[in-house]
Amino acid sequence: MSIVKPIIGISGGIMIDQGGRFPGYERVYVNNNYVQSVVRAGGVPFIIPIVNDPELIYRQVEQIDGLIVSGGHDVNPILYGEEPLEKQGAVFPERDEFDQVLIKTTIEASKPVLAICRGIQILNVAFGGTLYQDISYKKGAFIKHEQDAGPSVATHTIQIVRGSLLERILGTESLTNSFHHQAIKDTAPGFKVTAKTKDGIIEAIEKEDADFVIGVQFHPEMMVEKNTDMLNLFKAFINAASKK
């Protein structure tokens, strides 16, 4: 008898062709390592395209057992009550709106969420948190968070809170990669910080009243092929999705 594998939705972005036969043509996409990480961990991956109808998003969520919120553009600071500062990057308001509804609908359905890089940021903002528009605006930050090493290379340490779900998966300390210039400033109500770097940048949050809603600032999907700990993070997520 075959085991029924959980269906994992991966939030999609839009890539715009810059040349070729169709300049300006929009394509729905996610990086392939999100897809392959789900496969390696035992799930069935599906890309969820951006739509602007809450009813359609509700139906999208009905079809999945768990959600991965993928990386991408900077979150619009207007969403958390700030004007854009000099180092704020490009925003994608349609995706901001989509991701917030998608995340909230999935959580309301008591389905697990793993939010990655931009994912942790929009998760935090969706529930009332704020961001540093650039890490340089945080007093005391000194670690290089936009690494030049390859995507699978771990370049800095994160310290993980004892008793957290992430600590049960990765232990009290882990080495991760780092590809971000924004970070959580004020944590959203109902969430707890579960990992930081040694310069105080928040690297993980968890929703306090949920079985599995985790946001991570690093990119575990880029490390899965060579890193058992990061594969275990996806396996824990898939296991949570299997129970729904």
Span between N and C termini? 20 Å
Strand element count = 13
Please give the order of strands in the largest beta sheet. 4-1-5-6-13-12-11-8-9
Count of DSSP helices?
A: 6
Radius of gyration: 17 Å
Structural class: alpha/beta
Order of helices and strands: EEEHEHEHEHEEHEEEEEH
Q: Which sheet architecture does the biggest sheet show? A: 9 strands, mixed
Mean pLDDT over the full residue set: 96
As a percent range, the share of strand residues is 15-25%
What percent of the residues sit in helical stretches (DSSP H or I)? Answer: 25-40%
In terms of per-residue confidence, which ranges show pLDDT below 50 for 5 or more consecutive residues? none
Global outline: globular
In short:
The protein contains six helices and 13 strands. The chain has 244 residues and is α/β, with parallel strands linked by helices. Strand 11 and strand 12 (202-207) form a beta hairpin.
